Amino acid sequence: MNHMVKSYRLDRTFSALSDPTRREILQRLASGPATISELALPAGMSLPGLMKHVRILEDAPTEKSGRTRQCRLGPEQLDDARQWIQTYRRWERRLDRLEGYLEKTRGERA
Amino acid sequence: MNHMVKSYRLDRTFSALSDPTRREILQRLASGPATISELALPAGMSLPGLMKHVRILEDAPTEKSGRTRQCRLGPEQLDDARQWIQTYRRWERRLDRLEGYLEKTRGERA
């Protein structure tokens, strides 16, 4: 896939996941479709406030279907996001090992 | 860990990852510390624009050290984010299996 498209999709996926209300909505919708009134409103949230989050999720590269809300983050998007984190994590571990090695040889030279 | 604290940390981690320039900066910093002038400016980006992203990263729950920029998203934050995605993915798979089962039994009943 085109690098720019993939990068843009990562932006939207991570952005959709960066809010606790949106993560809750996704969790609720992952267990089946729901109407807006069936989505339990978080304490103190207005209906327009909830709608704003749902619209952000619908703008994300989600799978939509039917009359009831069913926007799910699809497997491809999630796998891309998870893969980005895993690759980054691998670099970090490599860097930590390198730091440990330099630390050790520094001790031996002292 | 406190649920609220963990949720807040997830917000900041996903938010930090939701921009391609910030992901590039993190990738660069994962391979070792750098000064602002060493961070290659993405094409067409001004220094104040770059600084804005660095400040957002520094506000994220990153590990900071020394005089040079070394803000890395630590292993705990990344593991939390990855775990959230994996758990969500598992629900999705379960839902897909359930849908497949219902589809099949519907066909048998028809």
Short synopsis of the structure:
2 copies of one chain form a homodimer. Chain A is mainly alpha-helical. Helix content of chain A is 66%, strand content 4%.
Write the layout of secondary structure elements.
The structure is a homodimer.
Chain A: H1 3-16, H2 20-30, H3 47-59, E1 62-63, E2 72-73, H4 75-109
Helix pairs in contact in A: 1-4, 2-3
Terminal-residue CA separation of chain A: 51 Å
Compute the gyration radius of chain A: what is it? 20 Å
- Regions of chain A with pLDDT < 50 over 5+ consecutive residues? none
Order of helices and strands of chain A: HHHEEH
User: What share of residues are in beta strands of chain A?
Assistant: under 5%
Looking at the chains present, what oligomeric state does this protein adopt?
Answer: homodimer
Mean pLDDT of chain A: 78
Structural class by SSE content of chain A: mainly alpha
Query: Main sheet of chain A?
Result: 2 strands, antiparallel
Number of helices of chain A: 4
- Provide the helix percentage of chain A: 55-70%
- Sheet with the most strands: spatial strand order of chain A: 1-2
Task: Explain the overall architecture.
Two copies of one chain form a homodimer. Chain A has 110 residues and is mainly α. Helix content of chain A is 66%, strand content 4%. Chain A contains four helices and two strands, in the order αααββα. Chain A has helices spanning 3-16, 20-30, 47-59, 75-109, and strands spanning 62-63, 72-73. A two-stranded antiparallel sheet of chain A has the order 1-2. In chain A, a hairpin with an 8-residue loop joins strand 1 (62-63) and strand 2. In chain A, helix 1 crosses helix 4 (75-109) and helix 2 crosses helix 3 (47-59). The longest helix of chain A is centred in the C-terminal third of the chain and has 35 residues, at 75-109. The N and C termini of chain A lie far apart (51 Å). The mean pLDDT of chain A is 78. Chains A and B meet through helix 1, helix 2, strand 2 and helix 4 of A and helix 1, helix 2, strand 2 and helix 4 of B.
